[in-house]
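Troubleshooting: if your tokenizer reports a length mismatch, compare your output against this known-good record of 155 residues.
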Amino acid sequence: MLCGPAKTEAEAYISFYRLGLGDECKERVGSLFFKHGYIFPGKWSGAANNTWSPEKNKAYFNPVIIHVLKHGFFQTATSLGSLYINKFTLYDNKREIPKAILALAATGIYAALSEFQNGTREKLQFSGNSYAKTYNTHMALLAKLESERTAVYHI
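Known-good structure output:
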């Protein structure tokens, strides 16, 4: 299943966000969802230390995204990304991760975080139908980043 590795690997590394328990967890997930903060590296700040302060110039460079990509799509020679790497677009003599895979990784993280949005974990099914809107949002964000901030997009 194409979606599987994205959420499975996100679940394995979700502790990076230090969500806490109960109300703290609920507030932190809400803060990570605000303007898709979870796609950026950042740190907790604010009076209650429950506000995610993202490094806005580093979209899609959050360590969780890097983990999901590496372990979900490139871990072995038979992983999806590894199998098709020769078909990836070249930019400055380097292979770029396709927007579709990057958007899927970010969507997997969103799905893993969604399980904690009420303060405790509630297992949710991860499927294309249930998270299509989130995936499409990431595809649009990546297209905008590529067209408006080409130098940042091609890092």
